[in-house]
Each structure stands twice: as structure tokens, then as C-alpha cells.
Write a structure and sequence with these properties.
The structure is a single chain. With 149 residues, this protein is mainly alpha-helical. 76% of the residues lie in helices and 3% in strands. It has a two-stranded antiparallel ribbon.
Length: 149
């Protein structure tokens, strides 16, 4: 796992500590770290829209780590889902395990689709609100709104 992803998982305190230590050790290195933090938006208070993206990336990394861990325990993942993996020696349990994993994968797919529908509905509502404001402004002859931020 890259160092930046690891520090992102820990959060802002880790980035602040890294910046302070790099200034103490070699001040030009501290400037480089500080420039990276500001340029990437990791420390900015104004990046509220990007915080959702960062949360999504964090969740995707966590999901990937969980899948890698499950692959170690249950065997590699095949195209149709989890491979049979090592047999427990109990046919009923193996059947139960494969059915449970199939059901969980289906629930995960449905939840991902649900999140996508929520994002689309939010985007549509924001766009409709923007268009309604623009119509009101053009009908009233008032000045155009200035973007904030």
C-alpha cells in the first residue's frame, strides 16, 4: 500500500506530524510535504465537494483489503464469485458458505447500484434548483449569481 494511502487512512494528524518532522529533519523537505498537502487538497478546508470523493476512495481501499483477506481464507475469487476454496470436509457447510457468499455479493452489487441512484438523484435535484434560480433571475431581470468558493 502506498505511503499516501496509509497516511490518508490515519487522517490529518498523521499528515501534520509528517510535516512537522520533515521541517525538523530538513526544512526544504518540510516545504515539499507542505506543498504536496496544499496542492492535493488534503489539508484544505475549502474542499468540501472533494471530501466525498476521498471518503469513497477510502471505502474502496478498505473493500479491496477485505476481499484480499477473504481470498486468503476462502480461496481465490473466480469469475462466478468465490471459488470453492479448501473444502471443510462437510458438504452442507460448504454449500451454506458458497450460498452466503453469493448472497453477500448480490447485496453488495445492489447497494452499489443504490448509492449510484442516490448520487444521480442528488445531482439532478441540484441541477434543477440551479435552473429554477436561473429562470427566476432571468424573469426578474436581476443580476446573475456569482459562483461561491
Amino acid at each position: 500500500m502506498p505511503v499516501t494511502a496509509w497516511l490518508d487512512d490515519i487522517g490529518k494528524p498523521a499528515w501534520i506530524a509528517l510535516t512537522i518532522v520533515s521541517f525538523i529533519v530538513f526544512w526544504p523537505l518540510g516545504l515539499v510535504v507542505l506543498g504536496f498537502l496544499i496542492g492535493s487538497g488534503r489539508m484544505g478546508c475549502w474542499g468540501h465537494q472533494r471530501s466525498g470523493e476521498r471518503w469513497q476512495r477510502r471505502m474502496e481501499r478498505m473493500q479491496q483489503r477485505m476481499q484480499e483477506g477473504a481470498a486468503r481464507w476462502c480461496g481465490p475469487r473466480s469469475r462466478a464469485g468465490w471459488a470453492a476454496g479448501p473444502s471443510s470436509g462437510n458438504w452442507a457447510f460448504d454449500e451454506y458458505r458458497s450460498e452466503t457468499l453469493r448472497r453477500l455479493e448480490e447485496e453488495q452489487r445492489e447497494f452499489t447500484e443504490y448509492l449510484e441512484r442516490l448520487r444521480r438523484a442528488k445531482d439532478k435535484a441540484e441541477f434543477d434548483q440551479f435552473m429554477a434560480e436561473m429562470r427566476r433571475r432571468s424573469e426578474g431581470g436581476g443580476p446573475m449569481p456569482q459562483p461561491q468558493g
